Each structure stands twice: as structure tokens, then as C-alpha cells.
Amino acid sequence: MHESMEVNLRLVDSHLDVRLASEAVREDMRRIARMLPPVLGFQFECRLGSPASRVDLLPRLLLTDGSCDALLGLGDTPPTLPEVARDHPTWRALGDFCREWRKPGGALNTGVMDVFLEFDLDHPPPEVPEPCVFMDFARPVRQTREFAERGLDLLLGDRLPASTRRRLAACYEALPPEARIYSVGVMFPRGTSALRLCLSGASLPRWLSYLERIGWPGQPGEVEAALGRLPELADQLSLDIDVGETLGEKVGFEFAIQAPIGSSQPRWETLLGHLVERGLGLPDKREAILAWVGHMQQRSQPESWPKELSRIARELNGRGLSLFLRRLSHLKVVHQPGRPLEAKVYLETLHRWLHYSDAQQGYVLDDDAPRGV
Question: Which domain of life does the protein's organism represent (predicted)?
Fold first, then answer.
């Protein structure tokens, strides 16, 4: 019997504080994870200001780790996704996308870096859970419109209104020269035809000018006042917008700290502390989120480790050691006119390899080692 993502979830279970995820939510995540391959990267979305012990689950599919093929049975192994799910329209559309994505030399193969699935867990998932699907574009690709349009044809086809296509084109044409749309999401389970666009590369003043150019219905000045010092406390600022037949009122601003885990921790403490001081976060949630950060290595729990990673480590004959990092990916602050800001933090798990260095007489991080993500 093939392993599922459940083995990965159980690895991090003791590190995910109960103040963030209740036992009921964990069981909901396990139910979903049993349908998925043992992906080597995933995130939890946590609402910093909500007392509810609930997170959303975001597994990451890659071509390089075999998770895309394993999910849908496109390679040499049977699919982890059960037949009842493979017959669901959303999962069929994802299958069409993945078949195109995996074609060597194809447009999506060169332009799409990964696919994130987002499972909303406000309520227990149905028998066939339906995810939002985000296609993330390869970092060297500046002009992503061609890949976005091809991906949307596969995921939505005729279900994407012509008016939404036109508005998507207008959002691309209005981009500042230094910016790019790095991800496009289809919000399948949310009962809307709107797309989620994620943009990076510009400063807050440039993003506010961009929102005016594309006809955003809110007031840019209100956004600047609401965000306050937040842009000063992070290294990178990204913008999320909802694009349908009209532009959504709600916009998200993502804040990332670009530093190694150890040196970034004090800055995360400051950033999250600032949100608590402003009433946008709960002290208990801040404490629980900061406690997430750390790592797990294969030797600490060999019996629980994913079998494929253990097999590769044996083949490396002591020259490689499997490692999962737990880090904070980014903060998202959501602005909607007439409502308080909402803060969400994304807790991330990533697989990496350590390789043995004769020169340093010890293991060092190696992102280029076999099956590194």
C-alpha cells in the first residue's frame, strides 16, 4: 500500500499547537491527506485574530518530487486520489492541467513551478473535498500571461466568462514594469467565478497606484493608513486581488521576511507583536505561531519517516540526511472597505537534504541534492 500525505502530517503533529488546530480539525486534515501523495511541502493558514483553533491546509504539488504524478496516477504508480474524487469536475480539471504540465518542453512545463491546493476547513470536508487551485509561475519567468491563460483554459474552459478574461488582460496590461503576476488561483469551492491574482515586485505606493489604474472600488488612502508601519517591518510586499466580472473589494497584502530561520525569528516576533498591539492578533496565537519554527531530521524518528525518503537516504549511504524545516512563510493582511483588517500567518513545512561535507566534517544544507524540493 502506497503512503499518503498523512505520514507527513503526523510528523509535524506535535509541533502544531492545539491553540492553532483542534483535534477535530486535525482529523479533517488527515481525511484529506489520505487522498493525497506524501508531498514534501505544505502550509497551514492560521487566523491570528480569531480564537478558533482552526487552520486551512495547503499542500504543494511538484513535478520534481513525483507528487503530481502520484496524485492522479499519471506515472508508473496507481493514483492516491480515490475514484470517486477523480470523477469530480474540479479534480478532473486538475487532471487535465497536470497532464499538460508534465509534458516535456510544453508551455506549462517550462512556465509553472508548482501548484498549491487550498482546502478550506471552516466546516468538516465533504466526502470529496474540493480545493482552490493555485498555479505558481517559475521565478525567472517575467511575462506570465501566456501560462495563466493556458492554465485557465484547462482548469475552467468555457466556464470562465469573457468579461473575466478581459479584466484579467487589463490587470496584466496595467502592471508596473518591475512587477509580475506570480500566481493565479481558481477558487472552485467558494461559489464564485472570480480568480485570485498574486502579484510581486512593487512597493506599496506603486501597488496603490496600480489598484487605481485597474478600477479597484476601494480608497487607496484608506489602505495606506490601515497598514501603518507594517511595510517597514518586512522585506517583501505582495498584493492579492480578486478578479471576476468586476474587481473584488477585498485585497490582501502579503509580507515576507527574507532571512534564514534563525535570524528571522526576532523580526517575526516584532512583526507579530505589532499586530497584537494593534488588536489584530491574539497573544496566545502569536506565542503558538512562534513556537512552530524548527526542524525535524530523519535520525530523530526513523520509524515514522516517509519510506521513499528513507530509501533514498540509504542509497546515499550516509552522505545524505533527510530533513523537514518548519518555518513561517509569510503574513497576509486582508483589507475590505468598512471592515477591520484581518491578519493570517502561513506556517510552512519544507523538505530539504543535508549532505555530508568532508571539508567541513559534518552535514550541510544542500538544495541540489536528490529529491530536494
Answer: Bacteria
Helices (H), 196-258: 204-213, 220-227
Question: Is the pLDDT score of 282 beyond 60?
Answer: yes
Contact 216, 239 (CB under 8 A): no
Under a CB-based contact definition with an 8 Å cutoff, are residues 354 and 323 in contact? yes
CA distances from 101 to 115, 154, 214 (A): 10, 10, 30
Residue 214 and residue 222: Cα distance in Å, rounded? 17
Please compute, for residue 343, the number of CA atoms within 13 A of its CA located in the half-sphere on the CB side.
Answer: 25
Mean pLDDT calculated for residue range 122-148: 93
Nearest residue to 237 (alpha-carbon basis) of 255, 211, 212: 255
Contacts of 260 by beta carbon, 8 Å cutoff, 6+ apart: none
Helix (H, G, I), strand (E, B) or coil at 319: coil
State residue 38 phi and psi, 5-degree precision: -75, 75
| Rounded Cα–Cα distance for residues 263 and 261 (Å) | 6
Considering only CA atoms, which of 256, 351, 373 is closest in space to residue 295? 351
pLDDT tens profile 210-236: 999 999 999 999 999 999 999 999 999
Q: Tell me what pLDDT residue 351 has.
A: 94
Q: Grid coordinates in use for 289?
A: 505561531
- The residue written with cell numbers 501523495 in the block is 37
Is residue 341's pLDDT more than 70? Answer: yes
Do 67 and 40 form a contact (C-beta atoms < 8 A)? yes
Residue 1 has pLDDT above 80, yes or no: no
3-state secondary structure of 91: helix
Handedness of CA 201, 202, 208, 214 (dihedral sign): negative
Secondary structure (DSSP) of 168-211: HHHHHHT--TT-EEEEEEE-GGGT---EEEEEES--HHHHHHHH
Cell of 52: 478558533
3-state secondary structure of 250: strand
